Structures are given as structure tokens and as C-alpha cells.
Amino acid sequence: MIRVALVDDQAMVRVGLRMILESEDDIEVVAEATSGADAARIVAEHAPDVVLMDVRMPGMDGLTATREVLTAHPGARIVILTTFDDDEYVYEALRAGASGFLLKSVDGDALVSAVRVVASGDALLAPEVTRRVIEQFARTPPVEDPAPSPEAVGDLSDREVEVLRLMARGLSNQEIASELYVSSTTVKTHVSHILTKLGVRDRVQAVVEAYDSGIVAPRP
């Protein structure tokens, strides 16, 4: 059973999310919070597998809450809920360690799929809007986190660099496999090596490092 926590100041949003998620046999909403300040508390109390976090809330916003939760619970998987107008918050949330984000207008099937993807240990990177956000925030210098060391980046093989560039384009393992004419298992192995060598925990953070290090250049 996938355990989900909802953090959003709008009751109707939480009700809608709960109804969609709990219609699935393998998902359970175990906690709700109405503010970022309560996010770390419910994560500590209920140990959810996935946290759906609104980025704009009165008091402590989703960005600050994401940092607090991940500082106290580094293994937490946080998905930011946003709109197209919230890009500046999402950039920093991804840097803070969020596993991806969803638009609040997402349909039910995509929401359920996203929760399952993140719960499985992957990150939300495939949607076109995610590529736009990552490329936009990559144009701005890092605020706190340094770029990866040249040693870490240089330790990637030529094929791993190739896979990382395709990851940055938002391709799934299957799509990368088709692009490179290899098996999905081979791609999965390459991705695992990339994450280990860069010292990051998921695909989103690997792509952040790819942009920061210059392996991938933002589109004009």
C-alpha cells in the first residue's frame, strides 16, 4: 500500500486529491496538513511514502516546508503541486530535493501514475512542462548548492554522459533504450551508475547536476 500525505491550505483541493487517490486499491491517504509548518510534523508522525505539497501557502510556503521535511527526513519523497505561474518556486524546490512536480490541473490518471512512480523510487521528469521548468531554473546560478565536483562529473563514462543528456530531455528508460538501441535493463544500470557517481538520489537531481556542471546546456 502506498501511503500519501497531502499538504495544501485549500480544503477542496485536498478533498479532490483524496477522492482520486483513495479510489485506487493500492493507495491510502494517511495524513493531511493545511500549512507548510505542519508538513514536517505529519511526515514524522505518519511516515508517508509520498508527500503532495502545495507550493503557495500562507505562512510557511511549500518551498520552505520541502527544505524542512527533507532536512529532518532525507528519505521523504515530495512532489510539488503548482501552476504555470509558480515556476520560480519550483526551481528552488527541485534544488532542495523535491522528486518532481505536478500541475494542479493534472487529471486523475496522471496523478495516480505520478504517485506510483515516485513511490517506486523514481522521479517525475518526463512531462514536457517539467523539462521547461528544469531548463528555466538551470539558467539561474545556484543559490546555495554547489555544482558537482569535476571529479564526479569526469567519472562518468561516455555512454553515461549520453544517457544523462537523454534523461535531461525528459526521456524514460524505455525511450532512452530505443534511442540508443539497447535494452531497458541496460539503461536502468547506466542510470543507477550515474546517480551513484554524481551522489544524487533520483533522476531530477541528476539532471539538476547535469545543467549545473555544463554537461547539458539550457535551450535558448
What is the H-and-E element order?
EHEHEHEHEHHHHHHH
Task: Based on Cα principal axes, name the global outline.
Answer: globular
Task: State the total count of DSSP E strands.
Answer: 5
Mean pLDDT value:
82
What about the largest sheet? Answer: 5 strands, parallel
CATH class of the largest domain: Alpha Beta
Helix content: 40-55%
CATH homologous group name of the largest domain: Response regulator
CATH topology grouping of the largest domain: Rossmann fold
Can you give me a brief rundown of this structure?
With 220 residues, the chain is of the alpha/beta class. It has 2 domains: 2-124, Response regulator (Rossmann fold); 150-213, Orthogonal Bundle (Arc Repressor Mutant, subunit A), CATH 1.10.10. The chain has 11 helices and 5 strands, in the order E-H-E-H-E-H-E-H-E-H-H-H-H-H-H-H.
